[in-house]
Amino acid sequence: ARLKMAAIFTVIIVLAAAAFDMPHPGIALGGIGVAAWLVTATLAEWAGHVRIKNKLSWPRIRGLKAGQWSLSLAHLGLGIAIMGMVGTALWTHEEMAVMKPGDKITLGQYEMTLKEVIPAFGANYNAMRGTIEVRSGSGSFTLLHPERRLYPAAAGRSTAEAGIRTSWHDDVYIALGNYDEKDDTWVVHAWVHPLVPFLWFGF
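and the corresponding structure tokens:
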């Protein structure tokens, strides 16, 4: 009966995921199904060990052996990590655009606006620092500051330092590329990686 409920919840999760437009739906839904089954079946089995008459029993929880805890946590972690793998491998959004201050791009659920690019200075480098507003569909926003750095003491070596925003459900990366002085434009490279935190949390 416990595994039957886990199977029902797994089907519900897969059907809910199928309602969203996604690349590679067959592989993605298969991965979600495996992850959902691992998580729900593990929780169902754990609940079966620690409940008496549909109520949690603290003596039973305390009485669980270390091996039982280890097995449950390993399966839970694997299920959560698989969700992260599916999101990172199959649902990543990427955009490269030539932008000037005021220009916008849309990537996934986010609207990204290049506000400005100004000089900045570090201990051993000079940089051009961008300010990019990242606004979600819910209206919340954050400011990211990618940099293009030049190291005079290292034979003029340059690097791109990405602006990164991490949340519980995705990571946003933005890098500042080359500058076109003639058109006063910058190359902006942006990525949205769904479910990356699930990958790290699962492992």
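(Above: one complete record from the training split.) The longest strand covers residues 110-121.
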